[in-house]
Amino acid sequence: MEGMQAYGAGKAGGTFDPVTFFQQPQTILRVVSWLFSIVIFGCIANEGYINRPKEVEEYCIFNRNQNACNYGVFMGSMAFLCCMAFLALDVYFPQISSVKDRKKAVLADIGVSAFWSFMWFVGFCFLANQWQVTKLEDNPLREGGDAARAAITFSFFSIFTWAGQSFLGFQRYKLGADSALFSQDYTDPSQDAAGAPYTSFGGDDLESPGGGGGQSNSDGAFDGTGGYQRQDY
């Protein structure tokens, strides 16, 4: 029964095993993507804004383009929340009994992961381009250079971690549903038992030891032919 699964998870109602959960490739990729988003967000938010020695106002380290820093901060924070949401869904996924709901969850995983992979590709190209055209006089002290390069590097790595999640989701989708364990319209077994028609213990055609039916015995007992027999004391 271990190999019989629906969309990558067994029959609903099983116990949650944290060790097995965190050893799954999909969970590992989600955690790695979650860490990458923290690094990108932290690098840009903490060291992504600098100013010239004679200026007070701070500008984005990426060619003084505020949109570049805003894009990185927004993507990092949203990717962080998205990873958390899908990790929670992965924990709850084995408890979903409906195959239709599991299918929707897997399709959402494929679409969202592919979307984030594309967005990180755009972000990597955007940040790398703005860093390449950054002028030396805008940052003569070369402050925040390591943070900027780290944000670009982890944006590049995020492309493949999210693409890997989309690929694993597609593999789960191809697994489909096992008809031996699941149905398209799942019904709780307790509800089936409650809704089943009541069957009496003694059937209508229950026969007496003598071979006659219960109705004939009843008629013979109450037809009055036996009469009253007097008992002598």
Written account of the structure:
There is one protein chain. The longest helix is centred in the middle third of the chain and has 34 residues, at 99-132. The chain has 233 residues and is an all-alpha fold. A two-stranded antiparallel ribbon has the order 1-2. It has one domain. It is elongated, with a radius of gyration of 35 Å. It contains 7 helices and 2 strands. Strand 1 (49-50) and strand 2 form a beta hairpin. Mean pLDDT is 78; it is low at 183-188 and 200-222. Helix content is 58%, strand content 2%. Residues 21-174 form the MARVEL domain. Keywords: Membrane, Transmembrane, Transmembrane helix.
Give the SSE map.
Blueprint: H1 18-22, H2 25-47, E1 49-50, E2 59-60, H3 66-92, H4 99-132, H5 145-175, H6 189-195, H7 214-222
Antiparallel strand pairs: 1-2
Helix pairs in contact: 2-3, 2-5, 3-4, 4-5
Main location: membrane
Domain MARVEL: 21-174
Pfam families: MARVEL (PF01284)
Task: Provide a quick synopsis of the model.
Helix content is 58%, strand content 2%. The chain is mainly α and 233 residues long.
From the alpha carbons, calculate the radius of gyration and give it in angstroms. Answer: 35 Å
- List the strand order in the largest sheet: 1-2
Task: Please report which band the strand proportion falls in: under 5%, 5-15%, 15-25%, 25-35%, 35-45% or over 45%.
Answer: under 5%
Distance between the termini: 74 Å
Q: Could you say how many structural domains there are in total?
A: 1
Shape: elongated
Order of helices and strands: HHEEHHHHH
Instruction: Summarize model confidence as the mean pLDDT.
Output: 78
Q: What helical percentage do the residues reach? A: 55-70%
Tally of contiguous helical segments: 7
Largest sheet: 2 strands, antiparallel
Low-confidence stretches: 183-188, 200-222
Protein name: Synaptogyrin
Family: Belongs to the synaptogyrin family.
Membrane topology: Multi-pass membrane protein
Domain MARVEL: 21-174
